[in-house]
Amino acid sequence: MINSSKKGLISNSSLILIAYAIVFFPRFLTSFGAPDIINFLHFIFVPAISVFILFTIRTKRRSQINLVWDILVGMIVVLLVTVFSAVVNQAGIVNIALQYLFQTEAFLFLAAMLAVPLAGVSFLRLKEYVLKFALCNLVLALAQSVLLPIGIYPKPSGGTIQDNITGVFGGGGGSAANYVSCTVSFYFALYFFLNYKFVPRWIRGGLLLAACYQIQVSDSKQIFMALAAGYGLLLLTKVKDPLKLCIYLVSIAAVTVVCGWALLNLKLEILQPYQNWINRDIWGFDGLAARTKFAAFRIIPSYFTSPLNWLIGLGPGHTVTRLGGWVMRDYKSMLVPLGATIHPASQRIFDIVTISYLPRESTVYFPLYTWAGIWGDTGVVGLSAYIYLCSIVWRRVCVDDLGKFMLLSTAVLGCILTQMEEPGQMITIACLLSIRWHEEQEKKAARDLHLLSNSS
User: How far apart are CA 168 and CA 333, in angstroms?
Assistant: First the structure.
């Protein structure tokens, strides 16, 4: 009986690793000539493996079962809104399937990992492989930073050398893989720094510095901005006193105003790199920066044909999510024959990238990004459903500040581009959140056992 149970645990942890590898490495393989179709295999294997685990696992702990059910109910709510929006807006079934998977694949994988009673040797093995995968990405990116400039590592077409420092997420210049790769490296390094305290500090700190170096050398400075904003938001969530919260907000606003005035009015050498942007005539509520970044909120409503569109949007994949913005453009010849539908709003917003020089100089000004896309595709109802699903993870799965920091900084990244829909990044976050949750459950079980033994 015991042997049978152990076999089941090993089998499930192996399945989780296989699913993770299918998400983590396909771009690396395609950059060396593997067919592009393998980039889509995770849409089949990750849900299939996750559903298999959820249907076959026999977890007895009530709290664990309730947690998994909460996540699944949240996913069902998102699915219902997505389908309703698709029906009203006549979006294709392919749109429903792909958009739903882009948004919830990581949540399904997280539910499967939480359902498995990971412990002991199988848990250690799982953690070891997850961390090795992430370390492999970091080491490869560092190697690329040296080998690409001297021509030893093959440079994909498109983009600068910095754009192609992508670790295992190589997808060619302009694919934003450098952002995904360095974000995964930083989350991994931070997890390792905070949770492997038996390892010498210089090794843990060295990994963290290496991840920061990867961000810098891959020209992904917006990741620094998102991480800083995520940390700032995390600090705000920890303030319990409303008066203190008001003081913090007023202080942040005052510092912002003072910095803005200094950048606009002082001529100091140290400020010149920042004044390259601040001195341009692009600011203000009706300036070029605002009109470019928030173009989706101006263009999408122009296609609304009824008040219902304000509630449920223009349909999945019809605006500026990763599906509507990039996947439909790059894989149009493959998806349209399968029944995918393309909305003119996507192309009209993408045209802004061609018209305005700002998005081509910095992706911070890109008008296509996840939060605008979820709102555009499924309206305020869909946006609320997705936030509700995220809130379940925030309240029930995040056991420490690391988890909350990852969620908040990823949410900030969703205001810049569509990193919130990158499977490799999101499933890595799901892995780390689940690992931390299981680690805490192990500690709690050990404490309970210790108390029980003392009382007896």
Answer: 27
- 42 vs 62: CA distance, rounded Å: 30
Q: What is the DSSP letter of 414?
A: T
Q: 304 and 347 in contact (C-beta within 8 Å)?
A: no
pTM of the model: 0.91
Would you state the structure tokens that stand for residue 427, as one six-digit string? 């499933």
What CA–CA distances, in Å, run from 398 to 19, 117, 224? 22, 17, 22
133 CB contacts (<8 Å, ≥6 apart)? Answer: 20, 21, 24, 25, 168
Backbone angles phi, psi at 323, to 5 degrees: -65, -50
Give the rounded distance of the alpha carbon of 128 from its chain centre: 22
**Which among 439, 375, 423 is positioned nearest to 107, based on CA atoms?**
423
Measuring CA to CA, how many Å separate 183 from each of 26, 120, 136, 259, 423?
A: 18, 29, 14, 27, 13
Q: Rounded to whole angstroms, how far apart are CA atoms 163 and 178?
A: 6
H helical segments located in 116-167? 120-147
Using CA atoms, how far apart are residues 26 and 356, in angstroms rounded to an integer? 33
pLDDT at 345 over 90: yes
- Structure tokens given for 74: 């949240």
Cβ count near 247 (within 10 Å): 12
In angstroms, the CA 115 to CA 8 distance is: 13
Which of 329, 317, 332 is CA-nearest to residue 382?
A: 317
- 314 has a pLDDT exceeding 60: yes
Q: Tell me how far apart the alpha carbons of residues 410 and 233 are, in angstroms, rounded to a whole number.
A: 12
Q: Per-residue pLDDT tens for 167-217? A: 999 866 556 899 999 999 999 999 999 999 999 999 999 999 999 999 999
Q: Using one digit for the tens of pLDDT, what is the confidence trace for 229-263?
A: 999 899 888 888 778 778 878 887 888 788 878 87
**CA–CA gap between residue 220 and residue 417 (Å, rounded):** 12
Strands (E), 126-236: none
